[in-house]
Amino acid sequence: MANAVVEAISKRRSIRRYSPQVVSNTAVRRLLEIASWAPSAHNAQPWRFVVVSDRAVRGLLVDRMAEAYSKDLERDGLLEARRDLIESSRRLFLEAPALIVACLTMEKMHRYPDEKRRRAELVMGVQSLAASITTFLLAAHAEGYGACWFCAPLFCQDEVRQVLRMPSSVEPQAIITIGLPDEQPPPPTRINAESIVFENCWGRPLSLAGQV
C-alpha cells in the first residue's frame, strides 16, 4: 500500500471547526467525483449528493431537522439533557463552509419478492454509500480540507426530503461538513488488532508465528 494512502487513512480526523474561507462548488464537485470511484454492490453506485449552497435553504433544513429531533427527545423525556448537543450541531451545520447531504437510491439495486433478500440489498446499498463517504473524507484530507460525517438525517428523513424536494424513493442518510480545518484533534483511540482480527473461527487470534 502506498505510503500516501496509509498516511491519509491514519492522519485523517473528524473536523468540526473550520476557518471561514469559502469552499467552492468546483472543489466540492471534484471531491465527490473522486468519491464516486468507491466500490459498490453490483456497481450500482447508489449514492447521490445534494450540496446545500444556499444559506436560506440550509437554515430551513437545519431548523426543520432540529425541530423533528427535539420533538422525539421531548417525547422520550431527554430533551433537556440533549439540548446543548442540538444547539452545537445547529451551529456547526449552519457555520460550516460547505454542507452536503449524502443520499441512498435503490434504483439500480436488485429487486426481490422476499423480505430477507430485500433487506440484504438495502444493507448492500448502505454499505456502498458508506464506502463512497469514506472515500470522500480521505480525498478531502488529501486535498488539505477537514470534514466530518454525521448521521443526523436518519432521524428526520421526511423533513430533509421535504426541504430538499427529494423523491420519496431517495433516503437521506448522512450530512458531511467540509472546510479548511481550524483545529487539530488528537489521534483517537483504537481497539487493538488482537481484539478484532480472528482466524478460522470467532475469538481465535490470528496466528503470526514464524511470519515477518
Search tags:
212 residues, NADH Oxidase, 4-stranded antiparallel β-sheet, 6 helices
Could you characterize what this model shows?
With 212 residues, the protein is of the alpha+beta class. It has a domain of 128 residues: NADH Oxidase, CATH 3.40.109. Helix content is 45%, strand content 13%. Strands 1-2-4-3 form a four-stranded antiparallel sheet, with helices on both faces. Helix 2 packs across helix 5, helix 3 packs antiparallel against helix 4 and helix 3 runs antiparallel to helix 6. The mean pLDDT is 96.
Report the top-level CATH class of the domain at 13-53 and 95-181. Alpha Beta
Share of residues in helices = 40-55%
Q: Taking strands numbered 1, 2, ... along the chain, how are they ordered across the largest sheet?
A: 1-2-4-3
What is the N-to-C order of secondary-structure elements (H for helix, E for strand)?
HHEHHEHEHE
Counting DSSP H or I runs of 4 or more residues, the number of helices is: 6
The H-level CATH homologous superfamily of the domain at 13-53 and 95-181, spelled out, is NADH Oxidase
Measured between the Cα atoms of the first and last residue, the distance is 16 Å
CATH architecture of the domain at 13-53 and 95-181: 3-Layer(aba) Sandwich
Shape: globular
What fraction of residues sit in β-strands? 5-15%
- Secondary structure tally: strands: 4
Going by helix content, strand content and strand pairing, the class is alpha+beta
Can you tell me the residue ranges where pLDDT is under 50 for at least 5 consecutive residues? none
How is the biggest beta sheet arranged? 4 strands, antiparallel
- Here the CATH topology of the domain at 13-53 and 95-181 equals NADH Oxidase
Mean pLDDT over the full residue set: 96
